[in-house]
User: What shape does this take?
Amino acid sequence: MNRASEILGFSDRWLVIIGVPVVAMLTGLLMFADVLVASPRAFFTTCFLVGLAYTAIYWLVFRFACVYWRSKYPKLEQSGKRILYLALSVVIGYFLLKIVLDPFLHKPFENELGVAKLEHEIAMSVASLLVTFLVLGIYEGVGLFNLLKTAQLEKERLLKENMQSQLESLRNQVNPHFFFNSLNTLAYLIPEDSGKAVNFVRKLSQTYRYILDVRERELVSLEEELNFLKAFVSLLKERFGENLQVEIAVQPQLLQYQTLPLALQMLMENAIKHNIVSAQHPCTFISAPKGTIGWWCGTNSSASPTPNRVRAPASTISAIAAAS
Assistant: This one.
């Protein structure tokens, strides 16, 4: 049962327990309503019991066929072939079973009630096949639903893993680059101003503490990321001085939005990498000015007389542009 449930995609224990007597009763009412009216006792002791035996045997045999074809063609794209073979198996199997079972169940039943043979057999066959396909439709419908659900979950899992892999790759590229530039700045500050050097080391340790804290987190609030960005910018200003200007103005209602950890740091480093930052060509970055939803604007006097800008929500990592 467990193996069959795994193949079917659900446990049909209660479906079998409840479905067999219910289907037997409905089939009996459909075929022998006149017997029920004339003799309720004959209906329940003969029609219903014989129908129960037929239903149980057909159900278990065709359930086996459903499990077999689902195990042979389990994939979603194989559904058409699986359903076709299952339908053929049901039609052929029904008449083979009928040949085997009729001498033991149908003949005594027919003789007792005096039912017209041809009319009875045609009506019973049509009704039995319709009910069988209805029940198997439930099996196949639930199975297809589970296949679609599994395929969607697998697609989402692969997409998530791909995004995490790309993000981790970016982190591994950015962090060493940031650390290397910070050491160069520190090497410059130590002989020039030991006080500034000590302050720089403290800020650097705080920055790396944040990097370590969020490394395993999938999302952080925009407020956390902006606080880290401000600390990161203060380290950059030790390196570039007044040649780098950063203005951050984000609407308060956006601060609880979620974003990827270290996203803004990577964007800022990328923006600086693609700009000239010097006394002759100072660089300015503005975040979400004038109450807009959110965009980054980078301008550099050596490259463009007007700012280059890209519109995007401030809570995502896609809102940045750097002047070339």
